[in-house]
Design brief:
Order of helices and strands of chain B: HHHHHHHHEEHH
Order of helices and strands of chain A: HHHHHEEHEEEEEHHHEEEEEHH
Number of strands of chain A: 12
CATH architecture of one domain in chain A: Alpha-Beta Complex
Number of helices of chain A: 11
Helix content of chain B: 55-70%
Radius of gyration of chain A: 47 Å
Structural class of chain B: mainly alpha
Strand order of the largest sheet of chain A: 3-4-5-6-7
Shape of chain B: globular
Radius of gyration of chain B: 18 Å
Distance between the termini of chain B: 23 Å
Largest interface: A-B, 24 and 27 residues
Low-confidence stretches of chain A: 1-8, 25-87
Mean pLDDT of chain B: 82
Low-confidence stretches of chain B: none
Structural class of chain A: alpha+beta
CATH topology of one domain in chain A: Sufe protein. Chain: A
Number of helices of chain B: 10
Distance between the termini of chain A: 111 Å
Strand order of the largest sheet of chain B: 1-2
Strand content of chain A: 15-25%
Oligomer: heterodimer
Largest sheet of chain B: 2 strands, antiparallel
Number of strands of chain B: 2
Strand content of chain B: under 5%
Shape of chain A: elongated
Mean pLDDT of chain A: 74
CATH class of one domain in chain A: Alpha Beta
Chain lengths: 443, 226
Amino acid sequence: MADKPDLSSGLEEMERMEQLLEASEAGESPAEAIETEPAETAPDTDLPEAPAPETADGDTAQPDEAEASEPAGDEPPAPAEAEPTKAKPDDVDSHGKTVYKSKAPPKPPKTKEVLEYEKAKRDHFRQTVWQPFLSPIIALVSICLVTSLLLGLTNSLTAPLIEANAASEAAAARRELLPEADDFTPMDLEGLPDSVTAMYAANNGTGWVVESYGRGYGGKVPAMVAFDADGTITGVTFPANDETPGLGQNLVGNANFASQFNDRPAQNISSGEIDKIASATITTNAAVSAVNAAVEAYSIKVEGATGPATDPAEIRAQLLPGESLTPVTVDAPNVQPEAFVSDAGNYIIYGEKPPESEYSGVVVAAVAIDDQGVILNLWIDTSGEGEQYGQTLATNRQFLDSFIGHSAPVVVDAVADITNSSRSVMEAVNNALNAWPLVKGVE
Amino acid sequence: MEKKQSLGRVFTAGFLRENPVLRLVLGTCPTLAVTTAVFNGLGMGIAATFVLICSNMVISALRKVIPSSVRLPCFIVVIASFVTLVHMLIRAYVPALNAALGVYLPLITVNCIILGRAEMFASKNGVLASALDGLGMGIGFTIVLVLFSGIRELLGAGTLLGFAILPASIAPMSIMILPPGGFFVFGVLMALAIFIETKMGKKPSKDAACGACPSAEMCPAKGVGE
């Protein structure tokens, strides 16, 4: 409560101080006064005077010189300046107060009031600057500093332990899927689909574990898929996901569902081959596509198979291994103009199926044909088709193999759920086969 | 200014009279989100109780140092760092506990019960009283979460703590573990809390929710309908 009165008196004092200052600047009298007549009369009992010397002190030098140079002062008291006049009403300041120049003896008497003034100044500072601005800033900054220091310290202590814990936990989960494995080495993920998040090889060569995900209803649906040394799926687990509780969540820990993947070869699985979880079709499809991503990772990394789209020359070399190819030109409907003839008398022709709607793209089939018009091998590009549907045909070995050994017109079983894309592939293959006599004739 | 309450009264306030979920309506978001299974509710409750006690004590100890104009940022910094600290320690030294509670710990940072108690109680009371308040509120929170999730798990999945309770012939109402079910149970439990309080012969204090609000003094709606 001491604050209030102190403040107001402090403020008053400051006001008066300012007036004094003004006066001294205007008349320059207090300063000279001090010089000329040090301690004559002491009419002052006025409070304001005490602090005056402080401010006036600084001025002392200047007024002297200034006045000396131009003795013709501008104000009434000016003439009197130079002379040793008595301390008269020598100036009445602009506010009508009579101000006696402080002839106050410089040191002793001022102390008390100056102290008071300084205290008021401090209080004023405390109330206008310290409390509203400085102290909150200092408190907040120091709390932040202390806490971040603590956090940093704890983090540097715990981070290695946390990492070790996480690693051993993940290794335990992998070992559960692939019990014969001793330890795992992480593999490079380059060239794998984005949906593959990790791939590990067992150090004793018993198999691989791939972590991947599919897009479900509530985000990523992760899966861990284990392959044994023969490329058979030995186990699949679905870790926690964000699917709907009671519906998609039933995927987690659902042994009946997960066991459907067991003992399948590492080949693309169509979602039609898997019994879905009731009321969770989207989650089920995401789970299947996660497993398929793992299968793709396995075939790329382990079997050395290439992804659907790679270098055309490489693809041709895979279709007819060890044969050297010469390009020829062919002009037929729905066939790419460049075909190839091998030194062994086989052909590669690129058949096309134009897009059916704005939702699909061109389906291309590179078909290797022997000189009897029988399919030896084929590669297809279905990248314009649906992600979880038509696109999977390109890596579906079972589907592709069903073409081999046939001649035109080829009809094979469509893959469940992917009927339209399957038909497009068939059409592209047949277009290539139909152009085969032409290519043979050109030659 | 605030009447001194006895420590016993402080401790029991959170059970029913000022239950954070049912009477103060704080922490509704985690309540609705995690109560799909009893295990989750229990885990969240225990983790929140622990953090509540500790943060109440820290805030109470610092209450004289923190200028009131920046008290909320200070509280949040203290609470968030505290939660992070505890989370890191648990992950490093008690991985088993982390497996059970790990998901809920980071969520506690944004649990407004913690901030609410810091503001309403810990910043005005001593360390011991604040610790008791944290414990009481935490127990109240845990009780409600367990009740809440028990009802939802039993009706929505037919199980309790993962053990099948309802015979398989009764199809569970899966809406109960979906968000709408959370709101149903919330309303019923809230009404139940007020009913019990009235039965016990006490007029439910309207102050619990409204009068305790930090902005109560300047709120034009305060006391409307009383």
